[in-house]
Specification:
Order of helices and strands: HHEEHHHHHHHHHH
Number of domains: 2
Strand order of the largest sheet: 1-2
Shape: globular
Low-confidence stretches: 1-10, 23-29
Largest sheet: 2 strands, antiparallel
Number of helices: 12
CATH topology of the largest domain: MetI-like fold
Number of strands: 2
CATH architecture of the largest domain: Orthogonal Bundle
CATH class of the largest domain: Mainly Alpha
Helix content: over 70%
Mean pLDDT: 81
Radius of gyration: 30 Å
């Protein structure tokens, strides 16, 4: 019995020495960093690489189709190549007028979107919290919302005293509807249990609205802002047909009337770039308001 105990103790000591040696070797060996341990920028670079390759591939296909005058289903005979468009872009970037067009459009977007945000969020919260307000306002929204921006041009000219106010009104409508509908959805999705819990602690209506309803509805509101910004640029292009002077939409439309194909594509790409940058800016500025989501995740 004593010999067996000694043998077991010896085996245990040997196993402990082996485990200690393995632990020391593991501690001494450098641990290879994994992709999960890398910074967010490093983790995202494969996605950026795939997107860059996708854009380059699209440009190559465009170059081949335009250079070969492809005329199968779609006609590329009159479409300039990306190299021609790039040269025209460099040319227009050297002129002051092009920047004036961009500046005027940005000013119109900023004012119209700001008004749509204030009015849309206010109306959306009111409708989300009041069934009476929903019954009064929703029929008007559902009737007016499907009307495209182009259809508003004649009436806007008659209603508003200046062309500038007409353009801003049409751009405002483009941003307003996505904002108000997403705000209604976000407010109505607020869990009723949270509202009742706040009431049990003595919170009033304003306190519940500020600390319970609005924080819960923020993701939907911000999604509506991002969508509204994109629709606002779409509406602006239609609205600037009214203007006979400045605006990137007018620049594109005027190029079409003069049959200047490279300028048309330059205008279209500029609108796309400005719209993308504006939507990114909206999401970037709203990120601090959604920091609680990241902390929860």
């Amino acid at each position: 019995m004593e010999a067996a105990g000694i043998q077991h103790a010896s085996q245990a000591a040997g196993a402990a020495r082996v485990a200690g040696r393995d632990a020391a070797l593991a501690a001494a060996e450098p641990v290879a960093p994994t992709l999960a341990d890398a910074s967010p920028a490093v983790r995202l670079w494969p996605q950026y690489l795939v997107r860059a390759v996708s854009v380059v591939a699209a440009l190559l296909l465009w170059q081949l189709a335009s250079a070969s005058k492809l005329a199968f289903i779609v006609n590329f005979k009159n479409i300039p190549t990306p190299l021609v468009v790039a040269r025209k872009l460099v040319e227009v970037l050297s002129t002051r007028t092009f920047y004036v067009h961009i500046g005027v459009s940005l000013e119109r977007i900023a004012i119209s979107f700001a008004l749509a945000t204030v009015v849309g969020v206010t109306v959306g919260v009111l409708m989300g919290r009041s069934r009476l307000a929903t019954n009064i306002i929703m029929p008007h929204i559902e009737i007016v919302r499907p009307i495209p921006a182009v259809a508003w041009i004649p009436l806007a000219i008659l209603i508003f005293p200046t062309e500038e106010s007409s353009i801003m009104y049409i751009t405002f409508l483009g941003a307003f509807f996505p904002i108000v509908l997403n705000t209604i959805h976000g407010v109505q999705q607020t869990p009723e249990t949270l509202v009742r819990a706040a009431q049990c602690f003595g919170a009033g209506r304003l306190a519940i609205l500020r600390h319970v309803v609005l924080p819960g509805a923020l993701p939907s509101i911000i999604a509506g802002l991002a969508i509204g910004m994109g629709v606002a640029w779409f509406s602006l292009l239609s609205a600037e047909i009214i203007s006979g002077q400045y605006g990137i939409g007018y620049f594109t439309w005027n190029s079409y009337t003069l049959v200047q194909c490279p300028e048309i594509i330059v205008g279209m790409l500029t609108i796309g770039a400005l719209g993308t940058a504006s939507t990114w800016l909206v999401r970037r500025l709203s990120r601090p308001a959604l920091r609680w989501q990241e902390e929860r995740e």
